[in-house]
Amino acid sequence: MVGHIKLAGLVAVFLVIFFPTVTAAQDVNFGVSPAEVRIKDLPPGETAEFKLTIHNNDAVPRIFTLAISPPPEGETREGRTRFPDGSWIDFSPNQMEVAPYDEANVTVTVAIPREQIWANQDWETWLGVAAESSDLLDIKLYVRLLVSTNSIVGGNFNIGLFAGIAAGIVLFGYGGYYYFRRKSRHE
Asked: Quick one: average pLDDT of 97-123?
């Protein structure tokens, strides 16, 4: 008899804790698109930008926070490794309020350092979007980000090299003009 009372008490505690949490979590109604982003052939030293759209399908305004989350072990796509450094990804903004039944865009920038060791790589990371909530259970949606780099290391525009080449062309042209002008005077 005591065993049944303990079991009934545990079931009651479970129902009191679990069901309000589930119903509160179901009240947070939002979405993120696209669900997956692929960046192909990004040269190290270059950047890529894309937009995420957060959809607030709720009757109240919600504050959303974005963060990078490495995928759990074994959850990456075949042939991909975890993204090496989360600081290479920037959200603008990383937190925003979205009005009821509205949507907002977030610009995501991926910048790979200009080093040869980052060439010919295939990485994966997840971009998490969470709605702030006072409930015990927080819901977070993830966007899968797949980044592939190519073998060409991107370069920055070198103004010194450009100025040197331009000056050389001007001097060569002036020298040629002066040479042919002197030659035509002596004839």
From this structure: 95
CATH number assigned to the domain with residue range 30-157, chosen from the 4 options 2.60.40.10, 3.40.462.10, 3.30.1360.120, 3.30.565.10 = 2.60.40.10
Angle, CA 47 vertex, CA 44 and CA 53 arms, to 5° = 140
- State the pLDDT at residue 91: 96
Q: Sketch the domain layout of the chain as residue ranges.
A: 30-157
Q: Rounded to whole angstroms, how far apart are CA atoms 170 and 100?
A: 63
What integer pLDDT is reported at residue 22 of this predicted model? 45
pLDDT of residue 79: 92
Burial class (CB in 10 A: 0-12, 13-18, 19+), 83: buried
Q: How buried is residue 172: exposed, middle or buried, by Cβ count under 10 Å (0-12/13-18/19+)? A: exposed
Closest CA relative to residue 121, chosen from 76, 69, 82, 73: 82
- Which ranges of the chain does DSSP label H, i.e. alpha helix? 2-27, 159-186
Predicted confidence at residue 49, as pLDDT, reads 97
The model's pTM is 0.66
H or E element: which one contains 102?
strand 102-111
Half-sphere exposure of 131 (CA within 13 A, CB side): 25
For residue 106, the Cα-to-chain-centroid distance in whole angstroms is: 10
